[in-house]
Write a structure and sequence with these properties.
It is built from 14 helices and 22 strands. The protein is an alpha+beta fold. The chain has three domains: 10-231, Rossmann fold (3-Layer(aba) Sandwich); 264-339, Uridine Diphospho-n-acetylenolpyruvylglucosamine Reductase, domain 3, CATH 3.30.465; 354-475, Phenylalanyl-tRNA Synthetase, Chain B, domain 3 (3-Layer(bba) Sandwich), CATH 3.50.40.10.
């Protein structure tokens, strides 16, 4: 009689997974995030049994989110008692998630997550833990992949959860490891039962309000009615996506020194070299540079990256405002990416007032201004934010350029009334730090052009225009 091969135990599976992915070296102190549910209770008990084999020290952390009244307090008491019985040091705290949600104007689910990881990061720092260990399972992986698809992910989102992730949180880099990613939720429940553990059950998991719960309770059962092997199919997608992203990561790392330069808190991208890349590499590189600046891609969606890609061939001066105060701007020979409080402004500092030679060339700090007079019929309008076509009879030839002044007003093209220049800049989403550098072309009568943005409606070229004044600002 041929005996079947004995299946590895949950502990053996976990040990192999940890070693295969090099999740932490021997001698590490691990901070275990234990909610008291079956998954995290299984995690604690498993790592306790593997502690000597892995050569690690354990510390348990539990946060009372104060969202479920007495139930939250009972969960905290359970974890504290369990850790005490097992002889593992534990830190239990309360934090006001609802107050945090109100202050930051985000969803309750997002607030709970951010507060929880800040707490875990604080505890990890205080106890000297090298990483935070969570009880995410294979089921969490499947749900995460589906959630990313629903939200319109790119290829990177199809990876779902990684065995090891590194985040930037409040200027601190934290490492999250997930040793149970090949273990199912049913396995953790069975493990707790076999070892006579009595984990807590969070009734909020039954609510259909969070997207993850709706995926778990409604979408996955429906998908299984179409394909009984949907779980395995989604996990295969995650593996394939990870392989492809790993290759793209290696290509971006190889190309990075030739394309990206870090300077004074911003990233400068070589326009010519970047535009030689295939679109797939461009897309991946922009994800990498955004992550380099803000530490994660939590609020950056595929549409934001596509918006950047669509703007690459736009004229100099164009800018894109991204989540978290991030700004992407276009110059003549490079792209800039940085936070709003970092000087990513493509405009040189203008001091004083300068007379523009008409016709002719005028040099001023950082700029070369070219003025040309042409007949209306000879005008071939170019789509460039730094070129303006004006009615010479309405502008006159006594033009100057300066920075904005308090009380400046003009009548933006297409409008019938004048508007404060500052209000226009706010409506146009021009970063505050840029506003004092944008050149303002004016005559003795009025402002004619906010360079890079809008001319005054009263000096636009019409059918009655006889002479056209063409102005072009070039960086030098």
């Amino acid at each position: 009689m041929v005996m079947g091969k004995q299946q590895p135990t949950l502990e053996q599976q976990t040990a192999c997974f940890i070693q295969r992915h090099n999740l932490f070296p021997k001698g590490s102190r691990l901070l275990l995030a234990v909610s008291g549910g079956p998954d995290s209770t299984c995690l604690l008990y498993t790592l306790l049994r593997l502690r000597q084999e892995l050569g690690v020290e354990l510390h348990v952390a539990h946060l009372d989110h104060q969202l479920r009244g007495k139930e939250s307090g009972a969960d905290a008491a359970y974890v504290e008692k369990l850790a005490g019985r097992l002889g593992v040091p534990v830190t239990v705290e309360k934090r006001d998630v609802k107050a945090y949600q109100k202050e930051h104007r985000i969803s309750l689910e997002e607030a709970a997550r951010e507060v929880r990881y800040r707490f875990l990061s604080d505890v990890a720092d205080s106890v000297g833990a090298g990483c935070i260990v969570t009880g995410h399972t294979l089921d969490d992986q499947v749900e995460t992949v589906l959630m990313h698809i629903i939200r319109g992910t790119g290829t990177k989102g199809l990876i779902g959860l990684k065995p090891c992730s590194r985040w930037l949180l409040d200027d601190r880099r934290i490492t999250i490891v997930r040793p149970l990613l090949e273990i199912s939720r049913q396995q953790t429940a069975d493990y707790c039962k076999e070892n006579e553990l009595m984990p807590r059950l969070d009734i909020s998991n039954l609510s259909l309000s969070p997207l993850r719960n709706r995926i778990r309770q409604q979408l996955l059962p429906l998908l299984k009615s179409y394909n009984s092997g949907i779980t395995a199919a989604l996990l295969r997608i995650a593996v394939i996506a990870n392989d492809e992203i790993t290759f793209l990561d290696s290509e971006v790392a190889r190309l990075w020194p030739a394309i990206v330069e870090e300077k004074e808190g911003m990233l400068i991208l070589n326009k010519d070299r970047l535009n030689e890349l295939p679109v797939a590499l461009k897309r991946h590189l922009f994800r990498a540079v955004v992550e380099e600046i803000i530490g994660n891609l939590k609020d950056i969606e595929t549409r934001h990256i596509e918006e950047i890609l669509a703007a690459l061939d736009k004229p100099a001066g164009r800018l894109i405002n991204l989540p978290g105060g991030l700004i992407f701007s276009i110059e003549y020979d490079r792209y800039l990416l940085g936070m709003e409080n970092v000087d990513t402004c493509p405009y040189p500092v203008i001091g004083g007032e300068y007379r523009i030679s008409i016709p002719g060339k005028t040099e001023l700090p950082g700029w070369l201004v070219e003025a040309e007079i042409m007949k209306s019929g000879a005008m071939e309008k170019e789509e460039d934010d730094f070129i303006a076509y004006l009615d010479l009879d309405r502008t006159g030839n006594e033009l100057k350029v300066r920075r904005r002044k308090p009380g400046d007003r003009f009548q933006p093209l297409g409008m019938v009334e004048t508007k404060k220049l500052n209000e226009f800049m706010i409506d146009a989403k021009i970063p505050r730090t840029w506003r004092g550098r944008i050149p303002v072309v004016y005559s003795p009568k009025q402002i004619l052009w906010l360079v890079g943005y809008r001319i005054d409606d009263r000096v636009k070229v019409t059918e009655e225009t006889k002479k056209v004044l063409r102005l072009e600002f070039k960086r030098c």
